[in-house]
Every structure is written in structure tokens, then in C-alpha cells.
Specification:
Blueprint (H helix, E strand, L loop, with lengths): L1 E6 L10 H10 L2 E6 L4 H13 L3 E5 L13 H8 L5 E10 L7 H18 L3 E6 L2 H10 L7 E3 L6 H9 L3 E4 L9 H9 L5 E3 L21 H11 L8 H16 L3
Parallel strand pairs: 1-2, 2-3, 3-4, 4-5, 5-6, 6-7, 7-8
Helix pairs in contact: 2-3, 4-5, 8-9
Length: 259
Amino acid sequence: MLIDTHTHLDDARYNDDRDAMITRAREAGVDNFITIGCDLATSQSAVALADQHDFIYASIGVHPHEVKHIQDTWYAEFRQLARSKKVVAYGEIGLDYHYNHSSPKEQRDRFREQIQLARELRLPVIIHTREADTDTVAILQEEHASEIGGVFHCFSGDAALAKHALDLGFYLSFSGILTFPKATALRDIAKTVPLDRLLIETDCPYLTPVPYRGKRNEPAYVTHVAQQLATVRADELGMSPEKIALATTRNAKRLFKLA
């Protein structure tokens, strides 16, 4: 049993075979999916898709790239969406200073607002951070995000960020990046994360793992993330893909309060 904790199942790249793609994942042992909102429209799509399947859950929120588009009515809309029992998290939210599609100040202001809304809704937060580690950690601390908890999704930071995240009580989620040949430093970090703080994801359709690089990613491939995680932690007694599956599934159910 596996849980892919970060997918974008509503992405247009799945329009021709979404049902078949979901079936492939289920046949590969993926029992649950969380599909992620990046703005109001994709949050609505995520909830609608989750409502169609008892094994799919949703998150809602606005990605840092998109926060410049937030309108006055959006937070009220998110409050309404959060009334669905299928909404288990708020995100992905955070800071991304690599592209700055939204200005850094606007990102920081909206990040604070969204943490505050997540605290109001009592939902754990899904964090996206890129080239913004210091500000991300500071805002999480200042806005008391540890009260609701959450996950640094698609973790690709350094050991210092991993420690900050763990000290906040957050989980670290590893993606197909863990399988990339040059990701040696990331694999070294993955060895050190407590087993009860690990999650796995695909971030599909992005970040396709080895051996499918160059192809569209999909949730069935989260099995390769689990396998790689077991491999890098092979020096632990009894470690196996099955143990990784059990631990990460247990962790996902705890964080997101899944049935």
C-alpha cells in the first residue's frame, strides 16, 4: 500500500487517459492520492475530482507563482471548499524566488495570509520553497505553523533546511528527484530523516523518476521513489520497500487525518 501525497491529477496532460492513469496507479499498489490546488480554479478541480473517487483527497491553496492573481473573494471561496470532507490540507503555498512570477514581497504577504487561513481551517500546510529557505522558515515560525503542522513537499533542500523543517515538527516528502543520478547530497539527507517523518510523492506530471525520465510522470511511478528510499536507507536493519511503504502510508494518514 502506497500513498502519493502530491499529485496534479487535474492537469491537462491527463485529459486523454485520466481514468486509465488512475487505474494503473491502483494496480501498482497506490491506494490513495492527494491532488493539489495551485490557485482557485485548480483547487476547485481538485475537490471535484476527489469527490468522484473515495480514494482521492484534495488540498486547496495558491502556489507562490500565482499569488499575484489572488482576488478579494478567493479566501471566502477557499473557506467554502474546505467544508468538503475530502479537503485534507492547505497548499501548496510558500515562496519561490527562482522565477519570481509574483514579487517576493507579495509572495511573503500572501504566504502569511494563507498560513493564517490554514490555521483557521485547522488544515496542515503543504510547503513549496525554492531559493527562499531563510524567509520560508522565518514566516512558518512567526505564524506559528507548527500548531497545524505540514510537509515540505518535493524536498530538495540542504541539511540545514531539513533540520529546520524537522524542528518545526514538519514532514519531508521525497519525489522522483531522489532517483536522479546527480542527487547524491539529497540521498544523503534522506538517510537521516526519522522514519516517522518521511512521505513520498510524484508531483506528477512533473519530476518523472528514473527509469522514466523524459516521459510524463504519473502516480504509478511513486513505487520507484519508495524503492530508492529503501535503497538509500539499506543499512537500517530490516529496511525494504515494504517497510518504506508501511511507514510513509502511516505518516500520511497521521498528518492528513485520512480514514
